[in-house]
Amino acid sequence: MPNKKYTIRVRIWIDEEQGPFLGIGRVILLERIKETGSITNAAKSIKMSYRQAWQLVEDMNKRAVMPLVEKIHGGKNGSGAVLTKAGEKAIKEFYKLEEKINRVISRSSYRISI
Amino acid sequence: MPNKKYTIRVRIWIDEEQGPFLGIGRVILLERIKETGSITNAAKSIKMSYRQAWQLVEDMNKRAVMPLVEKIHGGKNGSGAVLTKAGEKAIKEFYKLEEKINRVISRSSYRISI
Q1: Is B4 part of a structural domain of the chain?
Q2: What pTM does this model have?
Q3: What SS3 state is found at B113?
Q4: How many independent structural domains does chain A possess?
Q5: Kindly report the CA angle at B66 between B60 and B68, in degrees rounded to 5?
Q6: Within 10 Å of residue A12's Cβ, how many Cβ atoms?
Q7: What is the 3-state secondary structure (H, E, C) of B47-67?
Q8: Closest Cα to residue A10, out of B27, B93, B12, B89?
Q9: Which of B17, B68, B114 sits opposite A65 (nearest CB)?
Q10: Nearest CA distance, A4 vs chain B (angstrom)
């Protein structure tokens, strides 16, 4: 029987009691806030409207045990935003989980024969 | 710090070289073909058009190493369809994989703290 290469794909997200809380889209938004120091620039970098990015941040902040993003008002560059410790942790936890699952997947991929 | 219950969610599918090949939707279609003995009845049971179900079956049959569904023409009840051994195997492989990943997830779920 000829061989065929199958690849296992997976999409992961974390639900909080009220539904979807953190997936790769939100994780990337958090990373960009960390890199750019503002929600406006983070949103621009992923071609998202400021309004939508702001709503996602509000939603995460409200539903996490501790806020993930802290808004900073005033200062030389106008208003900005930084990740809290909880925000940094959320990114790490997400990738740790993704890595764990990818390890299982890479062990399984070569065993699939359909 | 208050406790919060997070749940890890995951969606799995299998890519073949030309892209998505088998996900939960197609697996359910295969199961229903097995149960009902026809593509028409399988499609009805999941509120899918016959045309779409037929196209999914054609696509799977063309892209798997061996066809997953065999169409039977004639007979008392008109034309029907049955799963081949490869079709049975595809269902099993998919659920085996899902179970493996769910084991990792259930070990991880209670450890998430964000």
Answers
A1: no
A2: 0.79
A3: coil
A4: 1
A5: 45
A6: 20
A7: CCCHHHHHHHHHHHHHHCCCC
A8: B12
A9: B114
A10: 7
Helix locations, B4-84, DSSP H = 24-36, 39-45, 50-63
The two three-digit tokens of residue A59, written as one number: 């939603």
Residue A97 φ then ψ, to 5°: -65, -45
Q: Rg of the Cα trace of chain B?
A: 18
Q: What is the CATH number of the domain that holds A74?
A: 1.10.10.10
In A17-108, DSSP assigns E strands to 19-23, 69-72, 80-83
Written as six digits, the tokens of B33 are 């073909």
A57-90 pLDDT per residue, tens: 999 999 999 999 999 886 555 579 999 999 999 9
Q: ipTM surpassing 0.85, yes or no?
A: no
Overall residue count recorded for chain B in this entry = 114
Q: What is the pLDDT of residues B3-51, one digit of tens each?
A: 678 889 999 999 998 999 999 999 999 999 999 999 999 999 999 999 9
Residues of B with Cβ-Cβ distance to A6 under 8 angstroms: 14-16, 21
Which one of B3, B66, B104 has the shortest CB-CB distance to A104?
B104
Which helix (H) or strand (E) segment is B23 a member of? strand B19-23
Residue A107 burial (CB count, 10 A): 11
Question: Which domain covers residue B83, as residue numbers?
Answer: 13-109
Counting one residue from A and one from B, how many pairs have CB atoms under 8 Å apart?
105
